Predict the 3D structure of the following.
Amino acid sequence: MNRRMLLTFPLLALLAPAARAADLQLTAQDHADIGRIEACLNALHTLKARFLQVAPDGSTSGGTAWMERPGRMRFQYDKPSPLLLVAGHGLFVFYDRELKQTTNIPLDATPLGLLLRDNLTLSGDVTVTGIERIPGQIQVTIVRTRSPGDGSLTLVFADNPLALRQWVVVDGQRQETHVSLFNVELGGTFDPDMFTFIDPRVLPGSDKYYQ
């Protein structure tokens, strides 16, 4: 896997230790806020937004993001970036047009895959490891209960009303990638082809949205 792909989006550290997540002592306020966050996420079905991404090395890139829960996401990076991320059919697909390289990662093998779950519950096989509040904002950090070493996902919400505005993915090697959302549009329908990637080396011009 090339260095640029690793810096641009955190991937799974496949050999991360499979320890269990430590229990966080949650207050009644924590439980109430977690319930609100679950309701907010599970009411989120489609989203389109501009994004700004900060990679582990501090470099930035932007583009347009589409999300269709459950299981679908597309990050179209602005030129001159040659990168594309498509999530669908149980996989994250990372494509580098310049290197003509494709990397496939199962959704359930990355922290970000939790965001695309259907009916996400922040308990059981998902553990809350942190919850923080500042005026106008609340954030929650989650891991897979049985394999916290795989990495964490921190979701940042504007509060009153709750609205997803940012996430931070920390991979198994403690590399952080920050994604902030702007000009968010909720609702609507998207062409299913946006979430299906066919390697152009196999079928040239197959992704009509990525030229």
Summary: The domain at 3-11+21-185 is CATH 2.50.20.10 (outer membrane lipoprotein receptor (LolB), chain A). Residues 28-42 form the longest helix (15 residues). Residues 5-21 have pLDDT under 50 and may be disordered. The CA atoms of residues 64 and 140 lie 24 Å apart.
